[in-house]
Amino acid sequence: MDRRTHDRYVERAMWPIGRGDRFFWIAVVVLGALVVAGLGAWVYQIKNGLWVTGLNQKVSWGFYIINCVFFIGMSYGGAMTSAILRLTNAKWRAPLTRLAEATAVAALLVGAVYPLIDMGRPDRFFNILAYAQVGSPVVWDVVAISTYMVASIVFLYLPLIPDLAITRDSLHKSKLAPIYRVLALGWKGTPGQERSLARGVGIMAILIIPLAVSVHSVLAWLFAVTARGGWHSTIFAPLFVLAAMLSGVAAVILVIAAFRKVYGLQEFITARHFRYLSYLMIALGAGYLYFMVSEYLTEGYLADQATAPLLEQIFVGTYSPAFWGFTIVGLVFPLVLAAIPGRYAIARACSASLLVIGGMWLKRFLIVVPGMAEPVMPWDWGRYAPSWVEIAITLGSAAAIPLILILFFRFFPVMSVHEMEEVEGGAPEPRGVVLMPTLAEGAGK
Amino acid sequence: MKRKILVFAAALVATLAFIVAGRGLLPGSVQLRVPNSNTISQNAPMPGHDTTPQQAPQPIVAPPGGSRVALAVTTGAKPELGYIVSATVTSPAGKAVSEATVRFYDVVDLFGQREELIGSGTTDGQGNASISYLPASGGTHQLVARFAGQGSLSASLGTTTFEAKVTAKPYVVDQPPLAGFSRAVPYAVGLLVLAVWGLIAFSLFGTARGVVATANTTRRKGETA
Q1: What pLDDT was estimated at residue B60?
Q2: Best label site of A90, A357, B86, B122, fewest CB within 10 Å?
Q3: What are A168-210's pLDDT values in tens digits?
Q4: Which pLDDT belongs to residue B18?
Q5: Residues of A contacting chain B (CB within 8 angstroms)
Q6: Is pLDDT larger for residue B16 or for residue A156?
């Protein structure tokens, strides 16, 4: 690779670091205000108790659990996209992986806070650890989410090391240079360092997939191991995993489109990338549709005493606008929109992603709230309407994801220059697909 | 290094202070004030769960002037089947009372002294009623036989104590079919989680070690050259 190409990559990946134009500050102030409003609402809830929410005796899970499942699912999609593209050695991944991995961490940081918010008394979180019951799905969740969080951060950090070295060398006069120097671990791009890095990234790319699957399976079992209509389903875990991947890929598309536009990455991230990601989203969406039909068909055909009233409420009752809105506008239409060949691939991919994200949130609502509202004894159906506190916290957390990403990419390169060079042939390509040879190489050293 | 330690110590103190201060701010930890009642501390015992020392057991005394119940315990023909607990009900005039229902109780200590019903019987023409009783535990047992009254006869009771040497075999609940499997699962999952954490640590620290070691080697070579 020639020097000019390398410099071009470095210039595009580094230019936002330490800079902030008017749009940057507007975005930070607006998103920051939403986050502060959300935090304020949470403090208000802590001081006054959970009665300030719309949660009640019958419907004790609402926006918080929906958001927890939704944001952690979004994180899963980001991590999976990056891991799968690395393992399959897809060359087009190079400008996308950093954004996908950062989206995964940002969404996970936000999603993991929701169980604390839902507890009402966050200080009692330590009781889960101190008095852990191994038979409790809540403990499974704590173990799975904390493991996945550490793995996601490591998966973001390891491929960042060579780029941190580039940042260290490019910004050697910056006040942050000592931090970059420490984080870069003395990277010089020697063959030995490349081998070590390839081994570490290879392990993490393989590990992150079962970890992400386990996290979402455990979240699904939180519902499925209870004897409630609509929840006690064997298909729930794979359904949750697929839903997470679908909403995650949609989120990655939106994040990539936004940073491409704002950071001027059109040269590197093209319509082709959006088409490929759209194909991935279509495949996942079709799979999800199949699982959903399979779930409702088997439950509806049997019309069990516990599930029949629930299905009635979902298909033709109180929740039917949400269900049909999700199915048609949030699932089928976006997949068709993304599948149509022709012009405006990026705009169509973004529109479809936006609809899919909205639809998948609605689907989580349809899982959590009607399942809770359905009486297990001959009582009335429960009712749930979120209070301003829940809405403020939800908006604040949704704003926190882009805010975290904007702030992160103000200090770290938005694209992986190292991977871009690998793809172009400037750096030795690590054997990400085959783990064992890389392990063997590491062991033989 | 000293500065890092100071920063770390300050962060630790701030976190602890936040936790301690936060506990005071939280609604559940304040005292609850119920209108027209005394202040209830959160740590106060729940109604019915009095933690004060138990009062001494009340003596079981028969009401005066009523019928009489005499109670006796004998060993049966087959001791392994338990003891014969017999009660004889007589009127104040000393005549046997027939067709009277007698309930037999063992005085047990279960959250305080209580009478546990162990059986009941109907008196015959001699005023005798008996049951077979195999206690769950050995040692001294206090038994009570209660006659609730019949016609003009008022209620009465009789008590006795006896030393139980033969007891019932403990009832063993059958293990559920998957009990052994269920017990093993947490350990297996725990090992799996540890293995995953080990792999993450290996991946991070192995890479860091490899990168730093190579960087140091390169630096030393450069210095030598």
Answers
A1: 66
A2: B122
A3: 888 777 788 888 888 988 888 888 888 989 899 999 989 998 8
A4: 53
A5: 46-49, 121, 123, 134-135, 143, 147, 150-151, 154, 157-158, 161, 185-188, 190, 192-193, 195-197, 199-201, 203-204, 207, 211, 442, 445
A6: A156
Contact present, A364 and A220 (Cβ < 8 Å): no
The residue among A300, A169, A165 whose CA lies nearest residue A229 is A300
Residue B52 pLDDT greater than 80, yes or no = no
Q: Which two tokens stand for residue B139?
A: 């040692």
Tokens of B40: 């209830």
Burial-class residue B199 by CB neighbours within 10 Å (0-12, 13-18, 19+).
middle
**pLDDT, position A112:** 92
User: How many beta carbons lie within 10 A of that of residue A141, not counting itself?
Assistant: 20
Chain B nearest C-alpha distance from A158 (Å): 7
Run of H or E residues at A315: helix A308-315
User: Which residues of chain B neighbour A428 with C-beta distances below 8 Å?
Assistant: none
Nearest by CB to residue B200, choosing from A134, A151, A195, is A151
Q: Which residue has the tokens 């500050």?
A: A25
A with B: how many residue pairs have Cβ under 8 Å apart? 93
CB contact under 8 A, A121 and B203: no
**Which ipTM did the prediction report?**
0.79
For the ranges A298-312, B93-107, B206-220, the lowest mean pLDDT is seen at B206-220
Instruction: DSSP letter for A430, please.
Output: P
